[in-house]
Amino acid sequence: MSDWQRLDRRMLLVHPIREVVKFLPALVALFLAGTASGGAAWHYLPVLVPIALGLLRYLTTSFRIDQGRVELRRGLLSRHVLSTPVDRVRTVDLTSPLTHRLLGLTTVRIGSGTGDDDGALDLDGLPVEVARRLRAELLREAPAAAADDPAPVVDTLRLDPRWARFAPLTSTGLVLGGGIVGLAAQGWNTVGGPRLVDLDDLADGAARASVWIAVPVVAVIVLVAMSLLAVGSYLVSNWDLTLRHSQRSWHLSRGLFTTRETTLDDVRVAGVSLGEPIGLRLAGGARLGAIVTGVDRSERGSSALVPPAPYDVVAGVAARVLGSAAPLTGPLVPHGPLAVRRRWTRALGPVLVVLLLAVVGVVADAAPAWVLVPPLLALPVAMLLAADRARSLGHALSDGRLVARSGSLTRRREVLGTDHVIGWTFRDTWFQRRAGLTTLVATTAGGRQAVTLPDVPLPVAVRLADEAIPGLVGSFAD
Amino acid sequence: MNLREPAQQVSARARWLWAGGALAQVVVAAGALVVVEWVSPLDLPWWAWVLLGVALASYVVVVPQWRYLVHRWEVTDTAVYTQTGWWARERRIAPMSRIQTVDHAEGALARLLGLATVTVTTASAAGALEIAGLDAVRARQLVDELTLKADAVEGDAT
């Protein structure tokens, strides 16, 4: 592969279509102007411009792998040459939008983990087989050997479509659903929906049926619509999700229309993050992400390993990725009574202040009695929150991994290999110092860049940090 | 096991640097307040104005002093250790083998005072160690020292 070569010839079909779509508004305007002024045949000629551009794009793009570098050359007027040393390649992702899939093509994105988008190199349009071979070559995996491997590669995980029931229980699922509802409403207005269906009529009907019926009915309809959309988008993006391990890396492929294949090198998997947002937790579900070093910031989403699924499935995958179940199932050290008290004061404090103000207001006859209701209703919620947050709090050092769990509404258990910890931060406010607590943060190059352990007693935090990386914190301790 | 404070203190002139920064913030806040009062009078009682004045003044006078007492740093052969903040204190430790870059910066006010800031970054976006208010000459020496030490230890900093 040392000569410059073009991308797959089938891209000659994709590029012109793409360019025509890009120029569509201008083309429609020209076309309308043409029909208005008589409709001579030459009015259709502008269509040729994007088609020619598409052809040129194909002809002027070429790539090669030579002398240990991947190089991509493109552009007609201004030439760009993107180049990356092969031994710097950290990620090779294959993405196939629908047009590519119909033609048996895929886009290869080669990332060198530099953290900016310029570092990524896209080979748009290679046959799937060629792309897979290229990936094996770039990631220095033994090619073809896998075929006569005595132990066939077993899937660690295959998506069960029934797991889509968890989709509406996450905030992302609901936000996605809400976004689609919003878009639909906008589209409805643009298309002229209000003219077709008389909303005033509906509103009149609703008003007659009284507010007490109309509001719950509308709420239920919106909730059901958003849930259905969340389930739909879950299935679209995770359809046929397969996670398997081969040689030295994890392979994840998924997608109904656009398929994505992501490869995570074992060396770069620093740990996992098991997320249990409240909705998922109550339904017995969880989701899993990998803490991956050397991924572009913009691609952080690609480190999701398991979408919302039953807890046992997620924990099983996590144990396989870590190579041991202990960090996930093992006991956690609680942070002590003072940390628990802080959870309570922080959750109840604001509510009690508001309640006090309301009581003063009512007693002084400056406010109506119903202002007492919201803080009184918020009180039990805050108590539940405090109790749950106190229960969640914990840490451990197990099998050479730092384990931290915290939160209630978005509870997370994070497991980070201690050899991936690249620094410690001890953060404490005046209140925390008075209680002898500190927030220990282990910084790392992957995921959220840090694993946080809130309100650990200071001596415990120092000992933990010293045990995780012997000799580092110890030299500053007494 | 308890964490001791880092050994070195920053330059005493750093207090003026922080006071300057705080003064700029207070002037902006006071300006905004004056504009609001001018557009629609707030009708605050006199003691509220006094309280506000005391709070702003102590932010300029007391907080820099507090910061100066907290800000400390230490460099050993194997690690960098910094302590910053005032109300919320932050102590950061990074092993020498994980250091990626050492930055040296002098703002306009810092240059007037002969001060500089040294920032040590690691591969984590959450892990930069900043030593502000160092004597400019001392800061230069520190940058050289850190560069040498970071080179001397093995590791690819990730």
Automatic annotation (TrEMBL), chain A:
InterPro entries (UniProt xref): UCP026631, YdbS-like_PH
Ranges of residues in domain YdbS-like PH: 58-137, 395-466
Pfam families named among the record's database cross-references: bPH_2
The name this protein goes by in its record: Putative membrane protein
TrEMBL record, chain B:
InterPro entries: YdbS-like_PH
Domain YdbS-like PH: 70-145
Pfam family, one: bPH_2
Protein name in UniProt: YdbS-like PH domain-containing protein
Source species of the chain: Nocardioides lianchengensis
Lineage of origin: Bacteria, Bacillati, Actinomycetota, Actinomycetes, Propionibacteriales
